Amino acid sequence: MKAKTIYADQTAKTTKLAVTAMLAALAAVLMFFEFPLGFIAPSFYEFDFSEVPVLVGTFSMGPVAGVVIEFIKILVKFLIKGTSTGGVGELANFVIGCAFILPAGFIYKYKKTRIGAIVGMLTGTVAMAVVGVFFNAYVLVPMYSAFMPLEEIIAMGQAIVPAISSTFTFCLYCVGPFNIVKGLIISILVFCIYKPISRLISSLNRMLTKKKVKDEPLTTDN
Question: How far is 49 from 61, CA to CA, in rounded Å?
Answer without folding.
Answer: 19
